[in-house]
Amino acid sequence: MWNEAPRAGPPCVKALIGSGKKTAAESPGFSPQLNPFWKQPEWNAMIAHQIQLLTTIAQGTLEGQYAVFTTTAPLCQRLAVEMAEYMAAGVIADPSFA
Questions:
Q1: Residue 36: predicted pLDDT
Q2: Do 39 and 83 form a contact (C-beta atoms < 8 A)?
Q3: If DSSP codes are grouped into helix, strand and coil, which group holds residue 38?
Q4: Do residues 40 and 32 lie in contact, with contact meaning Cβ atoms separated by under 8 Å?
Q5: Do 38 and 90 form a contact (C-beta atoms < 8 A)?
Q6: What secondary structure letter does DSSP report for 4?
Q7: DSSP secondary structure, 41-66, as one string
Q8: Cα(first)–Cα(last) distance of the chain, in Å?
Q9: pTM here?
């Protein structure tokens, strides 16, 4: 079950972080191929920041510091909205998507 992962300890977090970094390394190069309005440096920064925030939440939860979630989750949400807005702006700006 999804709620059993934190009890598995740090190895599960390390695996998640490793797969996230691999995805982050591959995704930004792919995004500009979809739409030239999307720039690789922006995607790199946004994805790296999101991984950093999620890592902070996971580590805080494992350590029993649940307040980390309440202070970091709003930042994750705001970043996700900014990423969605960035993606939408590229789609809206390119008439070939219509």
A1: 74
A2: no
A3: coil
A4: yes
A5: yes
A6: G
A7: HHHHHHHHHHHHHHHHHHHHHHTT-T
A8: 41
A9: 0.64
Instruction: For residue 12, give both structure tokens.
Output: 């599960």
Per-residue model confidence as pLDDT tens for the chain (98 residues): 333 344 445 555 556 556 555 655 555 555 666 777 778 888 888 889 999 999 999 999 999 999 999 999 999 999 999 988 888 877 776 666 55
Helix pair 67-93, 40-62: axis angle to 10 deg:
160
> Which SS3 state, helix, strand or coil, does residue 25 take?
helix
**Paired tokens of 74:** 């709003």
Task: Return the pLDDT at 27.
Answer: 55
Q: Which residues contact 72 (CB under 8 A, 6 or more apart)?
A: 53, 56, 57, 60
Which residue reads 């890592």 in tokens? Answer: 55
Reference 51, options 85, 17, 82, 11; nearest CA is 17
Do the beta carbons of residue 47 and residue 27 sit within 8 Å?
yes
- AA identity, residue 50: Q
